[in-house]
Amino acid sequence: MSVEEKYNRGNYFEDLFIGREMIHATPRTITEGDQSFYIALTSSMYPLFCNAEFARSIGFKRELINDLLTFHIVFGNSVPDISLNAIANLGYGNMKFGVPVYPGDTITTTTIVIGQKESSSGDTGVTWVQTKGVNQHDQEVLSFIRWVLMNKKEPQNITSLDSVPEIIESVPSTEFYIPDALDLSQFDPIYTGGQWFWEDYEIGERVHHVEGVAIEEAESQMAARLYQNTARAHFNAHALTNSRFGKRVIYGGHVISIAKALSFNGFENVLKILAFNSGNHTNPSFAGDTIYAWTDVKDKFTLSRNDVGALRLNLIAVKNLDPLKEEIPIRINQTNGRSAYHENVVLDLDYTVLIPRKR
Amino acid sequence: MSVEEKYNRGNYFEDLFIGREMIHATPRTITEGDQSFYIALTSSMYPLFCNAEFARSIGFKRELINDLLTFHIVFGNSVPDISLNAIANLGYGNMKFGVPVYPGDTITTTTIVIGQKESSSGDTGVTWVQTKGVNQHDQEVLSFIRWVLMNKKEPQNITSLDSVPEIIESVPSTEFYIPDALDLSQFDPIYTGGQWFWEDYEIGERVHHVEGVAIEEAESQMAARLYQNTARAHFNAHALTNSRFGKRVIYGGHVISIAKALSFNGFENVLKILAFNSGNHTNPSFAGDTIYAWTDVKDKFTLSRNDVGALRLNLIAVKNLDPLKEEIPIRINQTNGRSAYHENVVLDLDYTVLIPRKR
Amino acid sequence: MSVEEKYNRGNYFEDLFIGREMIHATPRTITEGDQSFYIALTSSMYPLFCNAEFARSIGFKRELINDLLTFHIVFGNSVPDISLNAIANLGYGNMKFGVPVYPGDTITTTTIVIGQKESSSGDTGVTWVQTKGVNQHDQEVLSFIRWVLMNKKEPQNITSLDSVPEIIESVPSTEFYIPDALDLSQFDPIYTGGQWFWEDYEIGERVHHVEGVAIEEAESQMAARLYQNTARAHFNAHALTNSRFGKRVIYGGHVISIAKALSFNGFENVLKILAFNSGNHTNPSFAGDTIYAWTDVKDKFTLSRNDVGALRLNLIAVKNLDPLKEEIPIRINQTNGRSAYHENVVLDLDYTVLIPRKR
Q: What is the CATH topology of the domain spanning B8-165?
């Protein structure tokens, strides 16, 4: 049969040349059904995303779609073109959260390739991409850079590509999007249960999130599928039998969701995520792992309005170890003189949030 | 660092003094997404909660939120303040279901402590609380008493507390809330598939519910999370390795949901729950258990309207044993002369439902 | 106690005489919450079912309910009357998809028995039924024939029933329902990511769907429950310990959903299912199995409109074997001279879809 092969096996390193732009297929309408499922996956309690009355009390039409649900859907939408074959998702940077997403909004995602570096062995390479999600009114809801380790299609053809983009170390406060609609004049902490405002957090402070949550295979699969993230490392038990880990890996974004939901304990008044400065899935998680988390306060900023401030936080998730009982270093020195993440640390997320100031 | 510890470890026996009132944080908007998830967790077929046309045919605007979904969300909302550290949820009583909850309604939950009794050993105690949920119009949707066994913060400080509230043995029919909107003039049993009306049930009758349903860990976790019930016994696989059972315990409310959904077989025409008279999670359930259920008809009442009646029912759930094939006593006499629940009985729920009368 | 037994144990072969009509209880309102759950179960990416803007761009009011979600709910609705006790679901035929289903529509299902054949042993028999779902405006959304192997209530009473209905081998194109609202003048493949139109597919062509997806017990149970499909083979772990397989069987319809979702890869522009010509669950699937799929193009038809065409496809799902790496025959010759399905083939679905033509 001479017919052209119709199926997509995903892109390789060479397919993603610098400057290539992609409008990802299957833009998605995010519904209140998606939000319910997100709550069932995470137990997220931030009231802006599950309480219409609270949302109205601070200026919005109704509850918003959870920032991370938007992130997962934008990210998942880029997977078929970017990372279906990725060996590893190495990191995120310069991630900015834009206009609020409401149930019923439809998000379209585009990506441009901004960097590529072949590995010294020549058989793989790292690709940097900038991905952006916009709503049906073409307003930006999210943009970020990520970089992925990919296989080459033709390992023997040396490309010598070595173009690494500069990534801002942290998103500057001038780039934070603060919704115009936000009006904290009626903000009532009874909704959040939070005692702590922007002024109460000190740089260097550590806040433990106390609880531990196990992750099941069915949860990880349904999370990734809800986001239409089809990366095979999360689904193909049969093929993965012969992989490095021998089994499915939990979608790293699900660990972010779990850790962020745990962080409600101690950050109840946080309203929205403004930015991810940098994020790393430092070790894989597997079904059956229990995730704990803590937050270190890295920095604080005043903003152009004096009713809210920003906190730059370092959210650390660890597996199978209670950091309240057994304090561990985030990184350890190896015998080779280099430092590496502690083997139980599964997430190192440096991000910035919006939180009310005291009145 | 001198900063005050920001995280909440949950309350202990001493924190919940009699008369203490709490407005629980994170009131919740219940959506049709939540209802879909509830159906996926339970297969509940009662049409008032999954058929807009049926609901309209009997006087409502559209389908209502399942009574038990409302219960779980009100209950879950109280967990962070009441039972995060509970050793055991001992029982419920005097539970009254109020105005119908529609998709989109927002439920706020408050609790008042009404009793405390220190255990003889002094290291634990039982606390009785009255919890109430209201909608965004401040109409009561649910109220109940529950009592929990809690650890003391300072076991060596003997409180000698011994104040046990009186709990009504069954909710009197004068306190039943029957929605004004309910109009059974067009009630058509074709919607329910039910042949049996109030008149057809006899006191003392036993109705088996035939089917058995296994519970998976992912289902239990997602159920509890959907209700934002963060009690660690359902989630922290790591810490529970060293607990009494060595593993996670299924959220007891999920067993109520499963048993109630099974009870559709034989009680198809039941419209709503009016009250829980008393409820006990008599033994724990674990992932992999198969739940069966039967109902004993305890009592019947006429009401102020003659188109509906009330049935007082005893819903019994058992695990890993088919009660149609192997009849067991609910309680057995132990060698010490006391009686205890049969080890396979996991739920003993005495509750009252609303059901149409024959025309 | 002389009270009549109230519970339903399901129908047996003798209960379903030819000509018997049943209006199944508990018609169901399908909501956008159900659709979200369906996406989480399948990762279905066909944009007509998850993108309101795309749906509007081709003439609909908003996104439609996924064809297979409608199928599962209609099918599930018939289970308590037809197949609660079925030994096996043998096949489907003459299945026609009718008017589009929107979130909020309520589907009522009816069935008529059209054939019965006692097995030679006399203890079982096959029953053929025709099932139909209509929306709240009494418009047909789905109709199909299925046949099930059932136990007899009284195996010793030989009925000699041998009335096998004729089932059309494939649904003729004159019976396809093409929505009047469909307007492809603004169809933009950027939404689907599809490069291939009706003209591009050749009869005899094979399209692999590349990915493999594992199925978890919790997913299978929640899928069947979402559809209120209570067939005990999917739920009763306890009773099934002593069954032929010793465990729960994945709901066969879930395998159809998984395979259809995988088939997006290569058939991105497919709009809707027009018909199932015949469908067979050729082998059972169990939790932990990984499902792969491919499609063979069987036939193509022009239609009364020249903006769309129909493709008759053979969707094959296999378990625990990657058909891209290890090509297998669908059927194999057994030593007894008969042919049988390859033991890894779990689904053989002959169906017809609607797809845009080139402009």
A: Thiol Ester Dehydrase; Chain A (3.10.129)
Report how far residue C234's alpha carbon sits from residue C257's, in angstroms, rounded to the nearest whole number. 16
Instruction: Please name every residue paired with C134 in a beta bridge, in sequence order, or none if there are none.
Output: C108, C140
pLDDT confidence of residue B91? 93
Instruction: Enter the tokens of residue A217.
Output: 């295979």
d(CA B178, CA A120): 75
Cα A146 versus chain centre, distance = 10
CA distances from B330 to B210, B213, B314 (A): 17, 20, 11
> What does the pLDDT read at residue B84?
86
Q: Do A8 and C265 make contact, defined as CB atoms within 8 angstroms?
A: yes
Under 8 Å CB-to-CB from B185, ≥6 apart: which residues? B307
Do the two domains B8-165 and B187-215+250-359 of this chain adopt the same fold? yes
Instruction: Evaluate if residue C4 carries a pLDDT over 80.
Output: no
Q: What is the DSSP letter of C182?
A: -
d(CA C193, CA C270): 11
What CATH architecture does domain A187-215+250-359 belong to? Roll (3.10)
C331-349 pLDDT, tens digit per residue, is: 999 888 899 999 999 999 9
**Domain residue ranges in chain C:** 13-154+169-356
Q: Which helix (H) or strand (E) holds C127?
A: strand C124-134
CB A35 to CB B37 under 8 A? no
Cβ contacts of C221 within 8 Å, gap of 6 or more: B213, B214, B216, B219, C234, C235, C248
> What is the secondary structure of B311-339 as a DSSP string?
EEEEEEEEESS-TTTS---SEEE-TTS-E
| B-chain residues near C229 (CB < 8 A) | 43
B266 φψ region: left (φ > 0), alpha (ψ -120 to 50), beta (else) = left
Q: Which of B32, B40, B63 sits opposite C225 (nearest CB)?
A: B40
Give residue-wise pLDDT tens across range A255-291.
999 999 999 999 999 999 999 999 999 999 999 999 9
**Amino acid identity for residue B79 in this structure:** V
Q: Round the average pLDDT of chain B to a whole number and report it.
A: 96
What's the topology of domain A10-158?
A: Thiol Ester Dehydrase; Chain A (3.10.129)
Distance CA A115, CA A166 (A): 9
From C205, C223, C239, select the one nearest C34 (Cα to Cα): C223
Could you tell me how many CB contacts below 8 A there are between chain A and chain C?
138
Which of A44, A207, A216, A289 to mutate against chain B (most B CBs within 10 Å)?
Answer: A216
Classified as helix, coil or strand, B117 is strand
Q: How far is CA C162 from the centre of its chain?
A: 26
Residue from the list C7, C224, C228 with its beta carbon closest to the beta carbon of B265: C7
- Nearest-Cα residue of chain C relative to residue B196: C6
Structure tokens at A339: 């430092």
| Range C13-154+169-356 has CATH code 3.10.129.10 | yes
Closest alpha carbon to B291 in B252, B333, B329: B252
Of A221, A226, A248, the CB nearest to C219: A221
Which is nearest to A99 in space by CA: A62, A66, A141, A138? Answer: A141
